[in-house]
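Before drawing any conclusions, I looked closely at one protein, both as residues and as discrete backbone shape codes, quoted below without any editing:
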Amino acid sequence: MTDPFDVLRFQARYCADTGAPMYAELLARAADDYRAGGPVARLLRGRDERALALRLLGTVHRLVLEGRVPELAAHYPTVGGTADPLAAWPAFRAVLVEHEDEIRAGLADPPQTNEVGRAAALAGGLLTVAAETGLPVRLLELGASAGLNLRADHFRYNDAYGPTDSPVTLPEAWRGGTPPVDAGLRIVERLGCDLTPLDPADPAARLRLLSYVWPDQPERARRLRAALELAARVPATVVRQGAGDFVAGLEPREGVVTVVWHSVMWMYLPAEEQARVTASLEAAGAAATATAPLAHLAFEVWGTDLLYPLTLRLWPGDGRTRVLGEGAAHGVPMTWF
């Protein structure tokens, strides 16, 4: 079992290193409160859920977004407050006491992060695949959440690619170069899977997604709201299914390049399911042809580095892993190699 104190301290350091000072401070104070036997200890002692710190933050943020904790909301920019890392802690701790039972129940729910910034990696990878195959794309996403990034070609990147009137803009998506923006990318199928898929048209689902955006990073919240607006105009399907079952029996399709993509979800899969997914991709890759190729794009952590590589495997061929670029966990900016 992982000690919740260590989980809180680790996530605090990560937030500090990735531009979320208020969450960094709240988690550091929460770790001290846990060690002192305060309300954080009552909530977290004996728990070993994955992403425990994010579950705690997301559950509290949801109360803020619902307008039920105004004293804490004064420090949350997502509802018009002013981020103040030091002043927020007493109000945060009070919420843990006043809403203890509700927060404890919320800790059982897995986080839902449909991070729109990661589309910078996906779109660049899709442009690369389209340039190399010359075929339209059949896009399959593992761990798709609400499927927002299945619409990645409808976002605007660096004022260099995508519809100029898109509500989703990533002006600093790419640096150090750009992917092949003239590749003629065309997506003909958008299908994803998730164990708990969310409907982007459902107000409760929208609230859940926003609750997992770090409130002192308002640009991420803006992107999310814009992507939810866009989802109403661009159809995509997300089925309730695990990744292993979703790709079981996967076959290339004639006349399109089948692209299997996932981002910052691999670590949450059990080793057995990771092996199933890998085996299915290898089998489909062995059956790929020049007119029915297969690509595997992954934006996943390697080791403990704060920068995540975007990797590509393409069949037919040896399916070797190529690193196309690297970016922060939330996707932007991506540095292209």
Observations:
- The first strand starts at residue 137 and ends at 142.
- The chain has a mean pLDDT of 95.
- The chain has twelve helices and eleven strands.
